[in-house]
Design goal:
0% of the residues lie in helices and 53% in strands. By secondary structure, it is mainly beta. It has one domain (2-353): YVTN repeat-like/Quinoprotein amine dehydrogenase (Methylamine Dehydrogenase, Chain H, 7 Propeller), CATH 2.130.10.10. A 5-stranded mixed β-sheet has the order 7-1-31-30-29, with no helix packed on it. The termini are close together. The model has no long low-confidence stretch (mean pLDDT 88).
Length: 357
Amino acid sequence: MLEARSLKKVEVPSTLIEYPSPANLHSNRLALHVSEDGTSCWVYVASGCQIYRILVSLKDSLVNEGKDSLLIPEHTQVVDSAIVNRCPHRSEIQTVVLNETESNDRLILGSVDSYGHLIVSRLDSDSKDVERLTFSVSPRDFGVGEGGWAGLCFSPSQWSTTAVAHSFGKSIDVYDQDLHLRTFRTLWYPTAVNFIQNLYGGNESSMLAVTEGCQLSIWDLRIKENGGCVHRICGSVGDIWYAVSSSSNGYIAVGGADRTMTVYDPRRWSAISRWVNCSKYEITGISFSSIDPNYAYIQGVDYEVFCGQWKESKKAFSFRGDSNWLGFSKCANRDVLGGWCDSGSIFVADVVEGKDR
């Protein structure tokens, strides 16, 4: 059983970000990094062409619970805040991702703007600011077409390998640092992208899961046939999937306008679980728990984020933002969640393994 150890609500100073830019419905413009002692975390948020960092305390506090297991946040102050230097984007940033290397001695900050321009930088040892610009890549069709949603993910086995999804261009570009490796052409506008583990064992991650329209497509960097697409799964016609996530045990989950979290087993490409109507409105984010992969965190358009056991379609707890989410994220190796609202509020939840009720 999972439970929240703390839930903080922080107001971003208007002197830092006066008016957050709107972005897209499923933009992911927030990333988290927890300190080694677990008492605080840096929250990175993007507004317009800038990235900002906010330090939030994670010290335990009394978590009040309302009706239907809805958690009530505790108001807290910003410990520190500043603009992140050396991230010179020229259009609105759509996705921000933090990636820790295997040795945990290097923290990588990646961001991509609405035209698919990618910037990857190395943060200094205390995660306060960019130490140096690692590499920057412009899309191959830069300057052609229109801006729109763009997504980014790092390979879990190699920090220098990134995949950038550009919605308007219907493309997924894969890079090894600034070297272009491959372009995948989707049938519909992509809405989410995520590296998945090798289905046949090993540490290499050469496969991508992409949501495009009402389809989940699987792409393999090693395959030339069919443009690299090795499988497609079609959902309800007319509904759009906005979120895709993979668990530590290999399962893949998708969700979107159908308000259903569907979990697939890639060994036979069949649905093993469907949590129907788990959200009141469209699902725009899904993350499996790092503590127990049988639990997942689901983000909805109605400002609500809830934790539940997806196999049994059983809700554990939830919390709500005070306006539209501009970004939401979970730490890669622990259950610390963060969300940023267009009101300027940031919500941070620290989830731990609790006792069964």
